[in-house]
Amino acid sequence: GHGEHGGEYNFSDHLITQGIHTIEFVLGAVSNTASYLRLWALSLAHAQLAEVFWSRMIMQYGVNTGSPAMIVVGVAVWAAASFGVLLCMDVLECFLHALRLHWVEFQNKFYNADGYAFDPLSFAETE
């Protein structure tokens, strides 16, 4: 099994090892929670920026002025701001979520570093 190296069983070694695993588990849970909170904060910022862009660019500086030219300018500025800020934030959010899933989740669940050292192929050893 994992970590069996033979020899005599020592309860204090087992207790220390379990304590270390417990600390790693708690730190991993806190890290996962903080990572999801970062994603939630990006989502919240996206929603608030969308509301501000809509209320300022379209409503206040466009429709409420009554000027067709200002409405066109307001829509153009809103579209540019929505594309430049919100779409880039969405791409960043998707990238961070994918990175989090690949790195944090995968490393926590499947990587133990309890294998054997890599021995690269060498033709010098075969001769």
Helix count from the secondary structure assignment = 3
Strand tally is 0
| Regions with little confidence, pLDDT below 50 for 5+ residues | none
Query: What is the strand content?
Result: under 5%
Briefly note the structural class of the backbone: mainly alpha
Share of residues in helices: over 70%
Series of H and E elements: HHH
Largest sheet: none
Q: Quote the average pLDDT.
A: 83
Q: End-to-end distance, in Å?
A: 36 Å
Q: Report the radius of gyration as a whole number of Å.
A: 27 Å
Q: Could you say which overall geometry the principal axes of the C-alpha atoms support?
A: elongated
Walk me through what this model shows:
The protein is an all-alpha fold. Helices cover 76% and strands 0% of the residues. It has three helices and no strands. Helix 1 (11-60) packs antiparallel against helix 2. It starts with 10 loop residues before the first helix and ends with a helix. The mean pLDDT is 83.
List the helices and strands and how they pair.
Elements (H helix, E strand, L loop, with lengths): L10 H50 L7 H43 L12 H4 L1
Helix pairs in contact: 1-2
Key structural traits:
127 residues, mainly alpha, 3 helices, elongated
How would you sum up this structure in a few lines?
The chain has about 130 residues and is mostly helical. Helices cover about 75% and strands about 0% of the residues.
